[in-house]
């Protein structure tokens, strides 16, 4: 009899414990305020407060950067970058997206440090920063400028900085549009054109749409190997009309911009420049009129005219939507 009572007592205790367990599992434990000296239970809702959007986005960036910590880019501190650049004393250039300074890492490697401009649209600027680190930082290709690291400081400075490999010969536009172009011939320009776009869509595991292919964003290393670097999206004169019509953006945006780049390599002049009377007419349109009239050779200069003509036809094909609409009949690219 005593044994039976003991067994029933044990079973009752187990049943009560199980019931308590189920209740706790269903309703959850009360939150504990860890900021107090004692373990005082408080409702979970009382721990949450309204957080400004700025802090939310800074936290989002921080979480993103932690997730890619296993990738190649290195996170630098503001103090390190100040030392690498000698307090940003050697300015290489500037654009709509940021200012670039020359620097040197402790191991002697030269770098280009791009300090991004602060904007009123905090969310957009943070998204662009994450896109740059996430895309370029994870993609490695001979024709893509390598991203060594970055700096993100969510304090009052709001610093967003990107550290790239240093490109000895600078941007292609200097060789096309000023006196330095005498130092590079048409065969080299042709090789630069060939290496300028295909990798973005065919040779990388992750398809990249650059959105801003232009001579200023094509940099040249010591061996004149072209490497693309990013900038602001959709520079007027290079952006496909689709970007302004909100018709959706694909790799065709870069195909169009590459066509404009080809024309500027062929003619070694801006595709449109209000400061120069001769450039009042859009160069691609003028080239098409010359082609239709059998006068294309007149604008091809002294370079290899056969090669230049093939490049010109390839550029026509890429600009079909931007020259005369549906009535534009494309010449063969072969």
Automatic annotation (TrEMBL):
UniProt: ATP binding residues: 114
Protein family membership: Belongs to the protein kinase superfamily.
Bilayer topology term: Single-pass type I membrane protein
Predominant place of localization: membrane
Natural source organism: Brachypodium distachyon (Purple false brome)
Keyword Oxidoreductase: no
Protein name according to UniProt: Protein kinase domain-containing protein
Residue stretches making up the Protein kinase domain: 86-334
Keyword Protease applies: no
Biological classification of the source: Eukaryota, Viridiplantae, Streptophyta, Embryophyta, Tracheophyta
Subcellular localization(s) per the UniProt record: Membrane
Keywords attached to this entry: ATP-binding, Glycoprotein, Kinase, Membrane, Nucleotide-binding, Serine/threonine-protein kinase, Signal, Transferase, Transmembrane, Transmembrane helix
